[in-house]
Amino acid sequence: MANADNKQTGSEAAHAIASGRTSLGIEFGSTRIKAVLIDEHYQTLASGDFGWENHLVDGLWTYPLSEVWQGLRSAYAALAADVQERYDLPLTSVGSMGFSAMMHGYLPFDSKGDLLVPFRTWRNTNTHEAHEELSELFQFNIPERWSIAHLYQAILNKEAHVPQVAFFTTLAGYVHWKLTGRKVLGIGDASGMFPIDSQTHEFDKAMLQVFSQLPQVAAQPWRIEDLLPQPLLAGQDAGMLTPEGAELLDPTGTLQPGIPMAPPEGDAGTGMVATNAVRPRTGNVSAGTSIFAMVVLERRLNALHPEVDPVTTPAGDPAGMSHANNFTSDLNAWVKVFADFAKASGMEMKTNDLYATLFRSALEGEPDAGGLINYCFYSGEFLAGLDEGRPVFARGPESRMSLANFMRAQLFSAFSPVKIGMDVMTKQEGVQVDSLVGHGGIFTTPQVAQKILAAAFNAPIKVMSTAAEGGAWGMAVLADYLRHADSNLADYLDASVFQGAQSTTEEPDANDVQGFERFFARFQQGLPIERAAIASIPLES
């Protein structure tokens, strides 16, 4: 069972590293690239990270590919330095390796392998026309952030690069391609590119045919089937680290090629693995810069619901996801204000202590946050019908302004958009959920986010001891699964990874549930405030 505080002796860990009984997972999150090395008992041996931020360029959110490689090398170098410091060993190899990243988005390349337009991330909502047309055409929800929506929108916009596209993929697929030479993608991430047939575990052939027959698509010099990567199930062979890939990852030449590579996955897939939520009727809520609530389905949904992304687990089983583009960015900005105040007052507070203090105060607030309203929209939010975003805090003159109510409103507002899609699954489609696990750094402060989420979903919320391990640890587990693929993924996680795992569960409190519903009604009623802010405040200063 994983534990950030390494329980092994240094000699045992060093022997595991030297003998290759390790797995490395690296995940490109929205604000951090993190590398985690685990042993065969799923304990974290070493880690490294690199902070980065997306850029708004010409109205679109992006990360330059130069920063992708700078960040990857820096995170890996930090991990290798951690290994050297802890165990007095150079990191020359690992037993297996895998990469994951923020899902979806659009990275199109020409026949020479050159990027045709800057990386368009999941955060962009300029693809609404494509979303509506394709969803109606397929009778299957094609979210704005999906890769096929980006490609089709570019076609509709008559963008000059479209005829030159020879391959397009996600960020995880791109990094994997450059390190292995293989144009493949884990099926969970692939399901955010184009609909997957859950029976064949391939891209849906009927939908590919329908898409190909669209006049604007038929006029292109390529076939859509030739542009997509090959979907792979967890545990399948995804190639090996090539000499060129080893040099890209570790320019010092210390890391040797030939390492087996797991299929590259999206952050939704690694979140499911890290929370042991890959069986039907299990689910997880993964919270970071964005937030998604995922439920593994027993059947496909009966109707088309724009609020729910139809995706798959890394094992290819159907899942429904409510995905909100915005979560911690606004919250982090407010915490920085309190950090600045503490510093100006001569107080020294560690960042974790500051978050914990502010979060705990939220539990002392009034059930409905005292009439305060907050909108955490840094960017557009499909679930709220917003093409763009502006963070807004508002209150009426009779509201009860206090630190406790303010922080409660911050947390309530952060969970509000994702509740919209979750309500569609549970209330309209009757989806049954046996367990829902919270995952992400926001859950590291005991009880607080857990209790707020239990109120939002009116359901028990479990937080496991791996809550803060994150997707990089989940990707490392998927890399380890390469050696255990004779078992199905769910059984492997139950029997090997999570056996004896410690967890806490918060049941919903009736007063909190009622308070959240009052806040949520106020949140929805006040959305015209957000729309007025979008119309009044320039996107770029």
Describe the structure.
By secondary structure, the chain is of the alpha/beta class. InterPro entries: ATPase_NBD, FGGY_C, FGGY_Carb_Kinase, FGGY_N. This is ATPase. Belongs to the FGGY kinase family.
Could you give a short description of this structure?
39% of the residues lie in helices and 18% in strands. It has 541 residues and is α/β, with parallel strands linked by helices.
Structure characteristics:
541 residues; alpha/beta; seven-stranded mixed sheet; five-stranded mixed sheet; 18% strand; globular; disordered N terminus
List the helices and strands and how they pair.
Blueprint: H1 10-18, E1 22-28, E2 32-39, E3 44-51, E4 55-57, E5 60-62, H2 65-87, E6 96-101, E7 107-109, H3 128-138, H4 147-156, E8 167-169, H5 171-180, E9 184-186, H6 187-190, E10 196-197, E11 202-203, H7 205-212, H8 215-218, H9 224-227, E12 230-232, H10 243-249, E13 265-266, H11 267-274, E14 282-287, E15 291-296, E16 309-312, E17 318-324, H12 328-344, H13 351-362, E18 372-375, E19 392-395, H14 403-428, E20 435-439, H15 448-457, E21 461-464, H16 470-481, H17 489-497, E22 503-506, H18 510-525, H19 527-536
Parallel strand pairs: 1-6, 6-13, 9-12, 14-20, 20-21
Antiparallel strand pairs: 1-2, 2-3, 4-5, 7-8, 10-11, 14-15, 15-17, 16-17, 18-19, 21-22
Count of alpha and pi helical runs: 19
Cα radius of gyration in angstroms? 23 Å
How many β strands by DSSP?
A: 22
Shape category:
globular
Low-pLDDT runs: 2-7
Mean pLDDT: 93
The amount of beta strand, in percent, is 15-25%
Which structural class is indicated by helix and strand composition? alpha/beta
> What's the helical proportion of residues?
25-40%
- What is the first-to-last residue Cα distance? 48 Å
Q: Strand arrangement, largest sheet?
A: 16-17-15-14-20-21-22
Largest sheet descriptor: 7 strands, mixed
